[in-house]
Amino acid sequence: MAIVMGTAGHIDHGKTLLVRALTGMDCDRLEEEKRRGITIELGFAWLPLPDKSRLGIVDVPGHERFIRNMVAGAAGIDFVLLVIAADEGVMPQTREHLEICSLLGIRHGMVALTKIDMVDADMLALAREDIVSAVRGTFLEGCLILPVSSVTGEGIENLRAAIVEQCRTLRPRHHSDIFRLPVDRVFSLKGHGTVITGTLISGRVKPGEEAELVPSMRHSRVKSIQSHGENVELATAGHRTSLNLPELEVADIARGEVVTHPGTLFPSSKWLLRLTCLPSAPRGLRQRSEIHFYHGTRETLARLYFYDTENLAPGRSTLAEVRFPAPLPAVFGDYCVVRAGSPLRTVAGGRVIDPLEYPSRLRRIDEEMKERLLALDAADDESRVETQIIFAGPLGVSWAELAVLTCLEEKRMDKAAQALSRTGRIFCFHKESRSWVAAVHLHDWEEKVMARAAEFHRAEPLARGMARGFLLTGMGKASPRLLNFVLNRLIKGGKLEEEGEFLRCAGHSVAMGEEQTALREKLLGAISENPLAPPALKDVCAALGITENEARPVLRVLLQNKEIVKVCEGLYYTASAVEEIRNRVAGWFLEHSDMTPADFKALTQLSRKYVIALLEYLDNSRFTMRVGNERRLRSGQGAS
Description:
Blueprint: E1 4-8, H1 15-23, H2 31-36, E2 43-48, E3 54-59, H3 67-74, E4 79-85, H4 92-103, E5 109-114, H5 121-135, E6 145-147, H6 156-169, E7 181-182, E8 185-189, E9 193-199, E10 204-205, E11 210-214, E12 218-221, E13 224-227, E14 230-232, E15 235-236, E16 240-244, E17 258-260, E18 268-277, E19 285-286, E20 290-295, E21 298-306, E22 311-312, E23 317-328, E24 335-340, E25 345-354, H7 367-374, H8 381-392, H9 399-406, H10 410-422, E26 426-430, E27 435-438, H11 439-459, E28 466-467, H12 468-472, H13 480-492, E29 496-499, E30 502-505, H14 514-529, H15 537-544, H16 548-560, E31 564-568, E32 571-574, H17 575-588, H18 597-604, H19 608-620, E33 624-627, E34 630-633
Parallel strand pairs: 1-3, 1-4, 4-5, 5-6
Antiparallel strand pairs: 2-3, 7-17, 8-9, 9-16, 10-15, 11-12, 11-17, 13-14, 13-16, 18-23, 18-25, 19-22, 20-21, 20-24, 21-23, 24-25, 26-27, 28-30, 29-30, 31-32, 33-34
Helix pairs in contact: 8-10, 11-13, 14-16, 18-19
């Protein structure tokens, strides 16, 4: 995995000249930069290392007006070379750049004390003391301070040797498997088309792979890849990388976009952060403050919302929500910088806890959940996975979303998920998308389903059970996959019983009251009085002085118990009467190959009203089949 070094420091302290002395490369490529003698845009170079690899170098501008470019360059570096001129010492941008590096999670670096050819020994000693004092309490406390002159070359070899040693001992920062390349430059190359550059902060990419620009969601294919000026067949995390995306125009892409593989990043207009206000900030941050927000290579306006305070005082940290004008992508653990005030200055920084905005995410964050979220940076893999799945809410999360929420490599995330699954703390409810839901939410779903089932039994006491569809509706935005998973667990656990297409609470049975039992006898009596020609349901109800709606629950029980048969809408036969008709028809076919409606009428001595209804019932129940205007007995049917 490659290492990237970035410069930092006040304007005109010799950052670009020092990079040229180290590498032989001039990072100032713009005509305006050469004319004005200052760095405006990011510059890039590389330094060959003894192991044949190359150290990527990002040269950043030092002027306060170009701080957005400085943050964009520093976002992907592993260690910093803080450049301080011996003739001026520590200056305002020196301090702000150091604060920005700290907020971006950079924990390693050294100081290059430049322009030593312009000062005497006493001035050099004072400059060194100034530096020691300025870095006290920062990640650079106790670091190497290396005097150099880019003009005479004095100290350059010592600095180069120190950089090589830093690369040898430094462990690259943790990366996930998600391919992410924040764009810091885009241009057109004759004969190739659009080219973008950036530091590949995680994952890997090969020529020929599909690429997606986020948040614009434009698609392309990677035609070719260069790293440190050479064509490569694979670019991995930590490399300065350029991608040829010929299907896109330069105007389609802007700094701040992220190149990734399709379906791996999910832009959101709200992120949850652990936010820290710098001790050096002139004042605290107020609730709903509008701020300039820096993440990766993007700068945008945003607004802050705190969960437990109206004012974030200097030196304090809190859980905060940042809201953007348009959705942006991030991954758990990403660093960000906040600038505010007039003139703008760096006042705070944070780490992303949850960059996804989805409807089921917990809206209420109690004290326990707040502490769990704030502790996620230091949490082990299982705790991180479980907490994020709980916080994702009752709809659960897909595997791709979980990768964004944890920033864990595939193998580590899978190991943690399997361990949690074995102990029943999370459950996979959709194997294709590998979607997970926390046990606490799954148990809530089970209670909701059982409550809905009990409600059905109360409303329909004579119903044998309810269709699955009844339990799957009225459950908000829950996916059918999740709800079916819940139903199957309840069935396996014995809380629900399944009979054909129906479900019922375990132990539920139809129990008629006295009035319903009496109505049952009256209905059966009316239907049985003339078995082959029973009256229509409306006539039965009229004779009994009830409505059809009052009769239907009892009729449903009679149907479920197979005491009656519904021949057509409004016409019911006793089961024994239907059996008699079947036997008569079967007997007819012992001597005949077909039957006309007239034959059936003669056989049953029934009117046309009953003949047509019964013939269609026999066809629909697959006892007979219609051929033209005649019926034939289906194979396997006969008299019982």
